[in-house]
Amino acid sequence: MPIHDVGYRRLKNENNSSLFRWLAICRIGVQLALKSKWVKRLMLSAWLPVTYWAGGFFFVEKAIMADQLRAMGEGSSFDQFSMLALTESMTNRFWIFPGVNDLQEVFQTGDIPEIRNTAWRWMLMTFFRYPQAIIILFLVGFIAPSLISQDIRSRALLLYFSRPISRFEYIWGKLCVPSIFIILVTTLPALCLYSIALLMSPDISTLPQTWDIPVRIIIATFGLVLPTSAVALMLSSLTQETRFANFSWFAIWGLGHGAWLTIALATSLQMGRPLFDPAVMQSDIVTNWSAISLYNSLGSLQSYIFGFSTFTESWRGIISLFGITAFSMTILYRRVSSPV
Hints:
Blueprint: H1 21-33, H2 37-46, H3 49-71, H4 83-93, H5 100-109, H6 112-129, H7 131-143, H8 145-153, H9 156-161, H10 167-185, H11 187-200, H12 206-209, H13 212-237, H14 242-271, H15 278-281, H16 284-288, H17 294-305, H18 311-337
């Protein structure tokens, strides 16, 4: 059968704006990542801690209500939820967590708006720092290593840049892939917890008391997304083998934190105190070397954003993250540019 009318033809579809060219790269990356069963399982697991932290908000609000009733002389059947009992319980169980001393001091003031704001901020900070950080470690490790390494191996970069796509648009589209998944397992669950806490509160007056918390959640997400996505994509661009990038991702987290724990252990043995004793964790040598751990650097930034440390206490981690991000983006841009 002969083929007729071969040549230039009028485009029947609408031409998309150049501002959204990166969106096609991002969409394909997300679709490919969602084909993995492990990615789906990790995303489901990321929402499981919400139930546990929701219980924490419940106990805090019950303790506040019990103290308010007791102050009005009406008594309360929730004696086990008193602020004193809650403070002692948190001090005994969570003494190794950052910000517990600040939380204890605020509980002793009796200022209900300040207690509520501080307790909510502390619980959301621990939510970001502990369960979600572990989820992100594995989630990004499954998603990001193949994003650029496969394009280099299959020469797909040349196909991308044969289109009117700039290197910045390509990098931005790839960066958005792990960023979207990080937002889905951190920002959305954290905002969900904040909404649950508002529903547990006695009246609408808690909203102006805690208005800054959603802003802190968004800023903390930005501080978490940019360094982790940049490092993961840089590793992906350095090799054609996905397994090498995957191994490097976990090695950076594991070796950095392991080296810091070794320093902390040596310091604890020298001081004759337990490993996670506040005197050991706040010693000069442990604090000065904390920036070698990507996990600790992110934790320092989150403590600063949620208001449980000053810039003087967190500057090492913040500067470390800024340097890591700038270095990773520079290497990533050069690696993407090299085939062209």
